[in-house]
Amino acid sequence: MARGGGKAPKQITWVICLVLYLVAVLAHFGVFRVSADVAEWSWIIGYGLLLAAVQLRGL
Question: What b/e string do you get for 22-55 counting C-beta neighbours within 10 Å, with b at 16 or more?
Fold first, then answer.
């Protein structure tokens, strides 16, 4: 098991991704209304940011 060599993103990056995902999920279930484009792109950008943060140091 590796110690201290993880590739976890910074907490602020993780929180931003979580907020974008929650926007998409809540819009999908009709909790609040946003454009379908905003809901779709929020999860796409959040997921892409999370993938990039795992690979790029300091993000």
Answer: ebbeebeeeeeeeeeeebeebbeebeebbeebee
Q: How far apart are CA 12 and CA 35, in angstroms?
A: 26
- Residue 29 tokens, joined: 């279930």
- pTM of the entire structure? 0.80
Q: Which two tokens stand for residue 49?
A: 């940011």
Q: Are the C-beta atoms of 53 and 13 separated by less than 8 Å?
A: yes
Residue 16: per-residue pLDDT = 95
Please provide residue 5's backbone torsions phi and psi, each rounded to the nearest 5 degrees: -110, 20
